[in-house]
Write a structure and sequence with these properties.
By secondary structure, the chain is of the alpha+beta class. Strands 2, 3, 4, 6, 9 and 10 form a six-stranded mixed β-sheet that branches. Strands 1-5 form a two-stranded parallel sheet. The protein starts with a helix and ends in a 25-residue tail after the last helix. The C terminus is likely disordered. This is Secreted protein. It comes from Lysobacter gummosus.
Length: about 250
Amino acid sequence: MPRRWTSWIVASIAMFALTAARYPTELDRPVLAGVASFSFSDRRRPVQLESAFESKFITKCSFYAIRIGGQDIAPEPASVVRSALVERFADKLAGRSVELADFVVHLNTAAGYRAMQGRLVTGYLADKLNDQDKTGCADDDTLGSYRMSEIGSRKAPIIVVINLRIDGRPFHARAIAAYEATGSGQGLVMPPGKKARDDERALWNRTVSAVVAQALARLGDAIDTGLFGAPAAPAPAQPAVLTPTPVESPAGF
């Protein structure tokens, strides 16, 4: 059997075998104890609590975007957001109503898998499978979509999106960074499972923690600007590409 078909079969089996996998993720972020000066409610959809592929079919725009469910993340995402708001704003949100609509973490591995599939065909279909621009359904959504230009490579990115409402007013934040894992022998990258090596899990936790911290910082800037008229902190010129070196949370959140 040709090697390219062997690669395709191995990748396909891996995809379906890992559909119901769990990806334990530990955020390097303590949750502050105490009573908030605002009311806080978790309005996330139940699907966001479960780890799963957004789609297993290559014809779907959300193909091979792997959602890390809230039940696999510690501390629990709603408590992380609530704590971050308390830490940054203290009593500035006193009396307000805060609703968490979305907290989604994705590892989008579609580019590598589509490239593998694209080597098996030619012409128009190969061009579509190897789209060098958009990977996903939109530029910014809750399905793990992104543009390859955001990370400057074909590496699989980790994408975090947070949406909440304060007194009914929406606020949104998104952060993305390349996940610097080496991948399998077929070049595919997956989140580390329960039996992964300690160094693999440490890199995963460190990278997700840094992207979550960046998303929270941007969320805080959006709230500062939207509610209090404070200027947002200058954004970095290029998206961060994270390495195994520990990354500290941005100052102020």
